[in-house]
Amino acid sequence: MVQAINLKKGMVFSQDGKLIRVLKANHHKPGKGNTVMQMDLRNIESGAVVHKTMRPTEKVELIDITKKNAQFLYNEGDTYTFMDSETYEQYEVTSEKLGDDKLYLIPNIQVQLEFANDSNLLGVELPATVVMKVVHTEPGIKGATVTGTGKPATMETGLVVQVPDFIKDGEELVINTAEGVYKSRAEVGK
Question: Which residue ranges form the domains of the chain, and what is each CATH number?
Answer without folding.
Answer: 2-63 (2.30.30.30), 65-125 (2.40.50.140), 129-185 (2.40.50.140)
